[in-house]
Amino acid sequence: MNQHHHQSHRAIDIDTRLVTTGAVLTATGAAVACAGMAIAAFAVLTAGRRMIRDMDVAPTHQAAVKWQQAKEASRAAMRAWQSASESRNGSLAR
Q1: Domain residues of the chain, as ranges?
Q2: pTM for this model (two decimals)
């Protein structure tokens, strides 16, 4: 019962020209994609700079004004809350 398994070793026959062509096309496509992304990023950044330059109020000044408004609104809300709290506490003490 000594059976020998006869295995045939087949070599994979790969056309190296096709593999090389595929690799070259892939690399070329990646280079074109990177160039496209760079051009698009440049266009967006240029438009953003132009938009900021054409603004009537500088973004830093606008942010400072909004921050001041927010602080004033917060103070007003705190004063209103304290005033309402004091009036309720005063009415309970009577």
Answers
A1: 15-54, 58-94
A2: 0.51
